[in-house]
Structures are given as structure tokens and as C-alpha cells.
Amino acid sequence: MADVAVALVHYPILSRGGGTAATAITPIDVHDFARSCAFYGVGPVYIVHPAPGMHAMVHDMLDYYRSGTGGKRNPARSEVLSAVRMVKLLEEAQAEGDYRLWYTSAAPPGAVCTEPAALPKMDGKHLIVFGTGWGLDAKNMPRANGWLSPIEGVGKVRHLSVRGALAIYLDRLQLKD
């Protein structure tokens, strides 16, 4: 079975106008990505952002739960958050695990996509990459192994929150024995 990790990219992502931008890290994304990945046995969880201030904010939060009062009060959260890794660039995460990159999007470019359930059947280590803002700025990112099939709904909303999309993709991996 393949090893699977995830990355939440805050830079480079697309702005509303289509340019390259960065978005702020939100604590709920960090918590929910770590918790969903722990539920499915996936990790580590890479949070990608170039700004030292964002790294400091996340490290303060992680320290509170890993070695501070929050960890004493809620040991399970401490364990779950131990999977979180902060990196400045996606290339750092890719190099750390020698991962094959799989990008996600509500509207992936090109016609060929891979179903998430195919990843565990492939050899090697895989990093599923999620974007914030208006999506991944793939032109300014490392070349991906491919794109995962988009999640298609039937309602009026075109795409899900990144936390909702993460949970669906993880479920579609079908990691159960």
C-alpha cells in the first residue's frame, strides 16, 4: 500500500483576478486537516506558506497543544497535531518525503484525471495538494504527477470548502483493508 500525505497550500495560489497571491492560514484549517488525516490514517499534514509571521502563529498554536496547557487538557489533540509540518514552499514537503504530487481543483486543467482510490494501489509515496483562495497556481508550482478527479456536486455552489473537500478525497482513497 502506498503512503499518502496531504499539503494545504497558501502560496502560490490564484487570486480572484487570476494573479498569484497568498492567503492567511486559519487555525481551524490546521486543526481540521490534522483531525481528518488522523481519522483516515494519512500524514503528515504540510501547511505551505512563505511568511515567517504565519509560521510563528501556527508554531505558537502547535506548542500550546503539543507541550503546553492545551496538550495537558486535551492529549488527543496534541497527538493529532503532531502530524502538522510547516514549510515555506511545496518543494520542501516534496523533498522531505520524496513524494509524487497530486493536485486538486474544482476545475482541473485538461481532461485526464486520476481517481483518488487509485493512489493506494500505486507504488511510492503520494502527496495530495489542496489550494486556498481561488485555487492552486499550478504554473508557479512544481510539476505534478497529475490531477485528482474533481468533486462534482448537483447544487448551486461550484466548489466546497477546502476542509470539506479534504474529507471527501480522503474517504475516496478507500484505505480500509
Summarize this structure briefly:
The protein has 6 helices and 8 strands, in the order βββαβαααβαβββα. The chain has helices spanning 27-40, 52-66, 69-73, 75-81, 90-97, 162-172, and strands at residues 3-9, 13-14, 20-21, 45-48, 84-87, 100-103, 125-131, 146-147.
Description:
With 177 residues, the chain is of the alpha/beta class. It has a single domain (3-50, 84-172), classed as 3-Layer(aba) Sandwich (Alpha/beta knot), CATH 3.40.1280. Helix content is 34%, strand content 18%. The protein has six helices and eight strands. It has helices spanning 27-40, 52-66, 69-73, 75-81, 90-97, 162-172; strands spanning 3-9, 13-14, 20-21, 45-48, 84-87, 100-103, 125-131, 146-147. It has a six-stranded parallel beta sheet, sandwiched between helices. A two-stranded antiparallel sheet has the order 2-3.
Q: What is the CATH superfamily? A: SPOUT methyltransferase, trefoil knot domain
**What is the fold named in CATH at topology level?**
Alpha/beta knot
Total domain count: 1
What's the number of helices? 6
The main β sheet shows up as: 6 strands, parallel
Oligomer: single chain
> For the CA atoms, what is the radius of gyration?
16 Å
Please indicate the percent range of residues in DSSP E strands (runs of 2 or more): 15-25%
The level 1 CATH classification is: Alpha Beta
Shape: globular
* Unreliable runs: none
CATH architecture: 3-Layer(aba) Sandwich
